[in-house]
């Protein structure tokens, strides 16, 4: 799954989710669950050390920049004064030349035009333009201004997703799903991840692995074409299950270090080439797929001191990317309990947050999504209507670009973020039903 500051996806329930389960399997999964929780503690400890190291580097970098900027300002002031004295009659050409020579490229490149599965209702010219949510996927079943869905935890089936929709009061537009990814064979043979949602009338947010656990960092596995068939088969399985319009999260949380497809400054070119190759393969099977660059909030791009590097350095290009998706949890250094900590959570000083992602999507003319977000009752405070309220208003204030969001309702002991299957977070559950279910 994803973590608030650090989402330890190696803990993801997808590692244990399957269509059927016997007694022996239940025992094995129990052992795996314990191992995952131990892995989580180890991962979080490593992340804490990494955070402290990055903060020291960023403080040092800011001090150096501050000194350099001050010196540059003095030099610039002298140059400007000289230009004003000697070329006052040509002030306008000087300004124009300075702007032209700044060398700042425009990042607003046109995006692909995804094929929606539902035809949006025509909008009269006198009304506001259609939102990204409607342009990409049609009118939301939920009746909200954006598409809203869920990861159900537990059984993770269409029936449970439908039950969650009935509980909140509005049907789910989306469901988050993942395949297993220990080996290439396991990735290919994870048809259950979509078959259990063959009766689901919403859209799938499919977390696509780029590499298996036993081939960590082996980008050549994809780039040499030897595993093209795996991605082709996954696309065919999605189509066969009635989800040829899925939102494909290509390499879930690729800026994190916990997945075998983790990206660093040394491998960013391989990641972008892999993204483009996989998108082309799957599009051949179904042009209705949309492809999302997926990163984790509050996590740096290893090897870079630029906090926005996961956005700008990793971006594969608007010709293959339909949207940016980011995972966010109320935990650890992204925990929000007041306005100051909320602002820090959505725009961390060390890495990109939700506010940065929204701005990036607007600049590039692509969609924005939060396919995993939620409470954390282990590394965070758990039940928090403050956090729920802040997330609701963030979504409501971003309807021009927000395409979908999926709450991560996981009751497992490693996170305790459930809303509808248990009583783990009763206040937040009531808030969610009131606003997302439009009750009262």
How is this structure best described in words?
α8 (228-240) packs across α9 and α13 (385-396) packs parallel to α14. The chain is built from 14 helices and eight strands. The model is unreliable at 2-35, 48-66 and 68-126 (pLDDT under 50). An eight-stranded parallel beta barrel has the order 1-2-3-4-5-6-7-8, surrounded by four helices. β4 (247-250), α9 and β5 (290-296) form a beta-alpha-beta unit. The protein is of the alpha/beta class and 440 residues long. The protein starts with 22 loop residues before the first helix and ends in a 5-residue tail after the last helix. 41% of the residues lie in helices and 11% in strands. The protein has helices at residues 23-86, 91-100, 132-137, 158-168, 184-188, 192-195, 220-223, 228-240, 268-285, 309-312, 339-346, 354-364, 385-396, 426-435, and strands at 147-151, 174-177, 203-208, 247-250, 290-296, 323-330, 367-375, 402-408.
Secondary-structure blueprint:
Blueprint: H1 23-86, H2 91-100, H3 132-137, E1 147-151, H4 158-168, E2 174-177, H5 184-188, H6 192-195, E3 203-208, H7 220-223, H8 228-240, E4 247-250, H9 268-285, E5 290-296, H10 309-312, E6 323-330, H11 339-346, H12 354-364, E7 367-375, H13 385-396, E8 402-408, H14 426-435
Parallel strand pairs: 1-2, 1-8, 2-3, 3-4, 4-5, 5-6, 6-7, 7-8
């Amino acid at each position: 799954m994803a973590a608030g500051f650090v989402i330890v996806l190696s803990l993801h329930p997808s590692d244990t989710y399957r269509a059927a389960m016997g007694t022996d399997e239940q025992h094995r999964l129990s052992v795996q669950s314990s191992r995952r929780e131990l892995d989580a503690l180890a991962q979080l400890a490593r992340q804490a050390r990494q955070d402290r190291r990055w903060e020291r580097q960023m403080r040092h970098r800011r001090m150096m920049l501050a000194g350099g900027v001050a010196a540059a300002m003095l030099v610039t002031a002298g140059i400007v004064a000289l230009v004003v004295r000697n070329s006052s009659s040509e002030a306008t050409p000087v300004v124009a030349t300075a702007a032209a020579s700044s060398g700042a490229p425009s990042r607003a490149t046109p995006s692909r035009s995804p094929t929606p599965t539902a035809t949006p209702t025509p909008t009269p010219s006198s009304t506001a333009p259609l939102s990204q949510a409607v342009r990409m996927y049609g009118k939301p079943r939920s009746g909200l201004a954006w598409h809203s869905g869920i990861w159900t935890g537990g059984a993770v089936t269409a029936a449970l997703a439908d039950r969650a929709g009935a509980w909140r009061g509005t049907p789910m537009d989306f469901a988050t799903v993942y395949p297993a990814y220990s080996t290439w064979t396991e990735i290919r043979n994870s048809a259950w991840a979509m078959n259990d949602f063959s009766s689901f009338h919403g859209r799938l947010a499919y977390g696509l692995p780029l590499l298996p656990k036993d081939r960590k960092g082996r980008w050549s596995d994809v780039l040499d074409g030897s595993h093209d068939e795996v991605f082709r088969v996954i696309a065919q399985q999605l189509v066969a299950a009635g989800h040829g319009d899925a939102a494909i999260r290509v390499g879930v949380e690729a800026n994190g270090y916990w997945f075998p497809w983790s990206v660093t400054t040394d491998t960013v070119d391989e990641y972008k080439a892999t993204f483009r190759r996989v998108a082309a393969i799957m599009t051949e099977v179904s042009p209705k797929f949309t492809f999302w660059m997926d990163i984790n909030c509050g996590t740096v791009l290893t090897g870079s001191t630029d906090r926005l590097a996961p956005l700008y350095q990793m971006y594969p290009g608007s010709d293959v990317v339909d949207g940016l998706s980011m995972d966010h949890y109320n935990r650890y250094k992204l925990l929000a309990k007041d306005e100051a900590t909320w602002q820090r959570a959505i725009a961390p000083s060390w890495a990109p947050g939700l506010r940065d992602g929204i701005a990036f999507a607007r600049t590039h003319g692509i969609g924005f999504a939060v396919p995993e977000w939620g409470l954390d009752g282990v590394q965070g405070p758990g039940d928090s209507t403050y956090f729920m309220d802040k997330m609701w208003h963030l979504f409501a204030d971003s309807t021009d670009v927000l395409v979908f969001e999926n709450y991560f309702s996981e009751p497992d002991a490693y996170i305790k973020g459930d809303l509808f299957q248990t009583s783990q977070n009763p206040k937040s559950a009531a808030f969610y039903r009131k606003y997302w279910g439009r009750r009262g």
